[in-house]
Amino acid sequence: MVNWDYSYIIPSFMILIIIMGYYFALPRLPIRMNKTYLAILIVEGMVIIFDVFASWADNMYAVLPAWLLVVLNSAFFLAFLVRAYLFFEITITILRLNLWKNKLSGFILSLPYFVSLSIVLIGFFRGTVFYIDENGYHQGAFYPVIYLCLYFYLAVSFVTIYKYRHKIRRRNERVSTVSFNIILLLGSIFRIIFPTLLIYDTFCLMASIVLYLSFGNPEYYLERRNMAFNSKALRSYIEENEGRGRFKMLAFCIRDYHDVREIYGSTQMNQGIAMISNFLKSNYPECLEFYYQGGRFIILGDVTMNWEDIHEEMRHRFMLPWKSDDAELYLEAGFALIDCSKGYNSADEVLNIIGVMLEKADALGSDFNILADENALADFEERISLKRSMENAIDKREVEVFLQPIVAAKSRKVVGAEALARIRDSEGDIIPPSAFIPLAEKNGRINQLGEQVFEKVCQFIAENETEKWGLFFINVNLSPIQFMRSDLGKRFLSTIKAYGVSPDKIHLEITEEAMIDEQQMEKQIQIMQRDDFKFVLDDYGKGYSNLTRLKKSPFINVKLDMEIVWDYCNHEDEILPMMVEAFKRMNFEITAEGIETEEMARKMTDVGCDYLQGMLFSSPLPLDDFLKKYKTIE
Ligand code: C2E
Ligand code: MG
Ligand code: MG
After folding, report:
1. pLDDT per residue as tens digits for the range 400-422
2. How many CB atoms lie within 10 A of CB 92?
3. Which residue's CA is the nearest one to ligand 1's atom 4?
4. What is the CA angle 94-96-98, rounded to 5?
């Protein structure tokens, strides 16, 4: 009779029940990771139960029938093997590998598992791993197979983790993956040294907890506010179903979400979002519901469902208010249907299409034809190729600088210029900044782009001694993102020094967007002014311009946006002259943009503008053309 020690295994079981309680309380995304983890928890529970009962039964062999001992011990060994294999399976799932992608390696790697299972199963008929005789339970000749199988999968796990470690992006996830396998290894060693402690299950439980904390917790895939799946969940689901997606999605957005949110306030709006999620969950239980931030939802389900009906139902539902005890919201929605049943190349592609379609749906609402058709794909292709051109230009330092002259209003002499960035597509055609600047801002490349323009301008000034032929300044545009960088001054200063250019030759243009955080802006300008940089306010009158806000602003020049220049030139009124007058009192010089005709030039000069810029004088020119046209001395 073996004196089994149950002091580890029983508390382990109780802890396992708690984890399961948490796990089952929340909705779980049906992806491989979660399915495998669920299987681990269940099998872990079974192993513990069989372990306890089998060891108990082994001691009671004298009074229990032999078949019961065989059944309990076999069940234990089977569950034990399954668990070992599942830990391996979850390791390769974390590494985003598919065992069966290559049939041969899939077969070789799963062979030990199936062979071991078969050996245990044969044990029902004749003793293999163990046998029962009149003296009770004994280890059989094949008992080491259990350990061989266990160590085989641990070894393969370690090798695979090492080989594919780059596939796990986050460091803590990498550490967790290694740790839970080390825990399993330690546990198996303990099992050999202290066989009566039944302690291996505790180590497996520890491994499951590590897995729960890093990968298994259903909350990672949930949006807290409404318990719908989140955007990470959507990406995981789409990634996993790449190449065999038999689903469609109805995506919809609350139109003008940010404005609506401001009107109703965030508390009411969150309730609204929860109400919509609940509606989706109770009406489409066979679908998965995702909340994709910013008032955007996605219902994902099988292709065979009647998607037109779902769309109609949702459209009707949005005609009614969303009401609860303390909220009542009237919301408008835009819809888009996205068909993934014909396959797709990557999750990025699908997510981008969702983004493009919802933008359209937001803008056009019910007028919008809801099918994601070739247009959406074409849009997507266009975005991708634009992004490629932009990154290519930045990486290869091929961002071009064009110069547009700025003339003194009275003398009509060219005294300065504005540097405007250009890039080219794969055919060599010019792409305008309105297309690539926002993209560079979104993709975190704007700093590099801006610095390249700045450096090329410095080089131009240094090489051509611009001041000698009357070009006193060149304006360079700064994106608000670039402007907010705390080390901007330092970086520009070092470039300027490298080219031996004086900082006051470069005027930095910023727009009112940079003025949202006024204190921050003033601080940044003050710091850079100490190094003699000059600032110009661009596009005045485009946004919600506010004269009084400018009072303290340290600009040397304000550029009137072409919209208000054109407005004034079409219908003269009192406002623009008064504005110019006020600016002059504040000691700002003024530039009028978008001057296209002689008449406009005259009107803006009469109003009191100091500088003029526009097609009348010249469109933006490549540097060489600019030199040919305006560099008057050699
Ligand atoms: P912006 O700074 O207001 O530049 C003036 C824009 O007006 C330029 O457009 C210019 O070509 C255009 N323009 C000039 N005169 C006329 C005219 O008489 N009529 C009309 N219809 N348009 C005129 P562009 O080059 O397409 O640049 C657009 C915007 O892109 C710029 O507006 C600026 O905000 C931004 N941008 C350009 N280069 C850069 C850069 O290097 N960095 C950053 N952050 N933004 C840049
Ligand atoms: Mg500008
Ligand atoms: Mg402008």
Report:
1. 999 999 999 999 999 999 999 99
2. 19
3. 420
4. 115
**520 or 609: whose pLDDT is higher?**
609
Rounded distance from Cα 547 to ligand 1 centre (Å): 23
- What is the reported pLDDT for 372? 59
How far is it, in rounded angstroms, from Cα 336 to Cα 55?
Answer: 60
Cα gap 175→131, rounded to integer Å: 41
Q: What is the pLDDT of residues 186-196, one digit of tens each?
A: 999 999 999 89
Q: For residue 6, count other CB atoms closer than 10 A to its CB.
A: 15
In ligand 1, the atom with minimum distance to the C-alpha of 433 is 30
Q: Would you state the torsion angle of the CA atoms of residues 34, 40, 42, 48, taken in this order, to the nearest 10 degrees?
A: -160
Q: Are 482 and 421 in contact (CB under 8 A)?
A: no
| pLDDT tens figures, 420-457 | 999 999 899 999 999 999 889 988 899 999 999 999 99
Give the mean model confidence (pLDDT) for residues 204-212: 97
450 close to ligand 1 (CB < 6 Angstrom)? yes
CA of 404 to the centre of ligand 1 (A): 9
Residue in 401, 404, 420, 446 to alter for ligand 1 test, most ligand atoms within 8 A of Cβ = 420
How far from 46 is each of 190, 198, 549, CA to CA, in Å?
21, 14, 70
pLDDT of residue 517 exceeding 90, the answer is no
Rounded CA gap, 301 and 161, in Å?
Answer: 34
Q: Which ligand is nearest to the CA of 559?
A: 3
Domains delineated in the chain:
9-216 (1.20.1070), 221-374 (3.30.70.270), 396-630 (3.20.20.450)
